[in-house]
Design goal:
The chain has helices spanning 10-16, 20-27, 64-76, 96-102, 120-126, 142-153, 201-219, 221-226, 231-251; strands at 2-6, 32-36, 50-51, 61-62, 83-93, 107-112, 129-132, 186-187, 190-191. By secondary structure, it is an alpha/beta fold. The protein folds into two domains: 2-153, SPOUT methyltransferase, trefoil knot domain (Alpha/beta knot, 3-Layer(aba) Sandwich), CATH 3.40.1280; 186-251, tRNA(m1g37)methyltransferase, domain 2 (Trp Operon Repressor, Chain A), CATH 1.10.1270.20. Strand 5, helix 4 (96-102) and strand 6 (107-112) form a beta-alpha-beta unit. The longest helix has 21 residues, at 231-251. Bound molecules: S-adenosylmethionine.
């Protein structure tokens, strides 16, 4: 996969993608990430890339011409079938399912906004879709672009090793992940659940599924409502709920 980011701060992107899973994916040639700036295409002596909003009010807006030229130059470096995305607080919220769909594409062109955002006409002519990373506002599209890149790249074949497999991650199967533990066996008086030390793989898997369902019930009932549970999963969740309620009753005076 090839990714091009158009941003006023290219080094924000190119530095961040050098570490961890992303850095390794780039080294192994699974993905390439490049960044370019509209400033390089600004035609005046001051290299102006922003302007005041029509209608007045606070803030500035990314200028159409240099941004469009930068987008088109970046697009020309991408393979056919690439998607053009503007990172926007008012875009469609990113989900694991959308990240998976986007990971099937040969390339992505990402536009990171700054100030109040970009001129609306640029979105109409140069962008296929707007993606938000959540219902809050950050100062620029660079962090959202990096979030999107990371969520996608870790799904590309051969990027994660077995040890880091994304199969059991939260949201992959419509529920949250189960709790994880490592050594020591007892930490500040809290012991690792006994079943995890048993070596009984079936019992461990049963416990993990129960915890994943229970956590989803406790923290994300909206996800649970959409989950088509098997009979076994329903039974595990009922057990979890009964245990929580028994514990609660035991604590009450
Ligand atoms: N005026 C915009 C609004 O209220 O929707 C916010 C502009 S924000 C300060 C500057 C840039 O950060 C945006 O153009 C967008 O690229 C990016 N941005 C901010 N929050 C975002 C979010 N939740 N998801 C994706 N991009 C975001």
């Amino acid at each position: 996969m090839r990714i091009e980011v158009v941003t006023l701060f290219p080094e924000f992107i190119t530095e961040a993608v050098r570490v961890g899973v992303l850095g390794r994916a780039i080294e192994r040639g699974r993905v390439s990430v490049a960044a370019s700036t509209p400033r390089a295409f600004a035609e005046d002596a001051h290299k102006t890339v922003d302007d005041r909003p029509y209608g007045g009010g606070p803030g500035m807006v990314l200028k159409v011409e240099p941004t469009r030229t930068a987008l088109r130059a970046a697009r020309a470096r991408l393979p056919e079938g690439s998607r053009r995305i503007y990172l926007a607080a008012d875009g469609e919220t990113l989900t694991q399912a959308r990240a998976r769909e986007l990971s099937q594409l040969p390339g992505l062109l990402l536009l990171a906004g700054r100030y109040e955002g970009v001129d609306e006409r640029l979105l109409a002519t140069e962008i296929d879709e707007c993606v938000s990373i959540g219902d809050y506002v950050v100062s620029g599209g660079e962090l959202p672009a990096l979030v999107l890149i990371d969520a996608i790249v870790r799904l590309l074949p051969g990027v994660l090793g077995d040890e880091e497999s994304a199969q059991q991650d939260s949201y992959v199967a419509g529920m949250l992940d189960w709790p994880h533990y490592t050594r020591p066996e007892v930490f500040e008086g809290r012991a690792v659940p006994q079943v995890l030390l048993s070596g009984n793989h079936a019992a461990i898997q049963r416990w993990r599924t129960k915890q994943a369902l229970g956590r989803t019930w406790q923290r994300r009932p909206d996800l649970l409502a959409k989950l088509q549970m098997t009979k076994e999963q329903r039974k595990l969740l009922d057990e979890f709920v009964a245990e929580v309620e028994a514990e609660r009753a035991g604590r009450e005076p």
